[in-house]
Design brief:
By secondary structure, this protein is of the alpha/beta class. It has ten helices and 16 strands. The protein has a six-stranded mixed β-sheet with strand order 1-2-6-3-7-15. The model has no long low-confidence stretch (mean pLDDT 96). The structure holds zinc ion.
């Protein structure tokens, strides 16, 4: 098949691409709590059935956050070629974060101005979803007899961990090496970049314990907050400088995230903050508990055991000078780093397509935070997975989020060409 014909077909679908993106943005799928998942899946399913896809709308029953009030719906659409072959899968999340403050436009009106579409989710990632749909529809119309299969999924809850979305589907076998051979996640990484994976995550909660007493006689109690202060001090003095020195060979962007990082997500000790309905004074108490949540992002050169033992060592060290310290550490959440081999077929093929469509060499990057690739890799055991899509990463979750129509067209061409190369061997 002539490649030029395919790329022209994408150009010809420009207004369809804009309309589809706007239609998706106008269905406000804000998560949490996870609104309108069913509506958006039905909307997409109706369209994809017309394009010849077989569609399944699947509720992640029993998954984290799934309830009758807020059911977690997902769509899996599959189109079979005329001959056996490999399957390429485009996975997009349908949820968006709440709009927040600072907008000059209605976040769910999908306002189009020149080359831009404004709205919550335009960039992250309904523009990417629409681009992948246009890409495969154009491919199927130009090349109806191809080998293999094409899948599109629209999945829930990526913004809150993906447990009612990709993780659940992977558990049920929808992402497995028998069914799918190549996965592209059209997250907004910029149209000339290929994202190979992400760093690892360990969230933990440290609790220091003390003994409650009257605040006027603190010597009779044991202050859990002072214990935590000593832990924080030790983190500042010895752990943070140690993390600064660890630099990965993974091409993480932005540059500062090539180091190991630690964020203190929250800290709480003593009396709970008074509710708005109470306007009196707090009571004088020596706090007997203080809890802190750590968000540690680690590199593929580090092991999770090593990452954890660094924190255990800090606590052991503090205990030497504060013998009354009693503490507990709880694991809350962990994700191993994910890194797709740059020589794998999906990376090579998307790279060649970027080169052809944009006339530049692709940049290979790794994301500082994790996304649904973690479930496709760990649960689905699919190694041939990347994130590639239109949109400027920094605009994600911002007020006046937008996507450029020309970037969507370019990324759609790259996705169509990749599909052609993988399913037709480029012929
Ligand atoms: Zn996203």
């Amino acid at each position: 098949m002539e490649l030029k014909g395919l790329l022209n077909e994408i150009e010809a679908r420009r207004s369809d691409l804009v309309q589809l993106t706007c239609d998706l943005v106008k269905i406000p799928t804000v998560n949490p709590p996870g609104n309108n998942y069913r509506e958006i899946c039905e909307f997409l399913s109706k369209r994809l059935i017309q394009s010849g896809f077989e569609c399944q709308i699947i509720r992640a029953e029993g998954a984290l956050a799934d309830s009758n009030l807020y059911p977690r719906y997902n769509l899996i659409a599959r189109h079979e070629g005329t001959r056996p072959g490999e399957c390429i899968h485009f996975n997009s999340h349908i949820d968006v974060v709440e709009p927040g403050y600072g907008w000059t436009k209605d976040p769910f009106a999908a306002v189009v101005e020149k080359d831009r579409i404004f709205g919550r989710g335009t960039c992250d990632m309904k523009g990417g979803l629409a681009s992948s749909i246009i890409a495969v529809e154009a491919f199927i119309s130009v090349c109806p007899s191809y080998s293999g299969a094409i899948e599109i999924s629209a999945t829930a809850d990526e913004e809150t961990g993906g447990f009612g979305g990709v993780a659940w589907l992977a558990e049920k076998g929808y992402f497995s090496p028998e069914r799918v051979q190549h996965v592209v996640i059209p997250e907004p990484l910029n149209k000339d970049r290929i994202c190979l994976g992400h760093r690892g995550v360990w969230w933990s909660e440290i609790e220091t314990k003390g003994r409650v007493a009257h605040g006027s006689m603190p010597f009779l109690g044991d202050c859990a907050i002072r214990h935590m202060g000593a832990v924080l001090d030790e983190i500042e003095q010895s752990l943070l400088p140690q993390l600064e020195k660890k630099i990965t060979r993974m091409p993480v962007v932005p540059e500062q995230a090539r180091k190991s990082t630690l964020n203190i997500n929250s800290i709480h000790g003593g009396l709970a903050e008074a509710s708005e309905s109470y306007n009196g004074y707090p009571s004088p108490l020596v706090p007997d508990s203080c809890r802190m949540i750590l968000d540690r992002r680690y590199l593929m050169e580090e092991s999770l055991e090593q990452v954890k033992s660094e924190v255990y060592e800090i606590l052991d060290k503090v205990k030497l000078t504060r013998p009354s310290l009693v503490y507990e550490i709880k694991d809350l959440f962990e994700v191993k780093p994910s890194y797709t081999d740059p020589t794998s077929s999906i990376v090579q093929t998307v790279g060649e397509s970027i080169n052809h469509v944009l006339g530049v060499s692709p940049e290979y990057v790794v994301s500082p935070g994790s996304y649904d690739q973690k479930h496709i890799d760990r649960i689905g055991k699919l190694k041939n997975c990347i994130a590639y899509g239109p949109g400027i990463l920094e605009l994600a979750h911002q007020p006046d989020e937008y996507i450029c129509i020309s970037d969507m067209i370019d990324a759609s061409k790259v996705m169509a060409m990749t599909t052609n190369d993988l399913l037709n061997g480029g012929s």
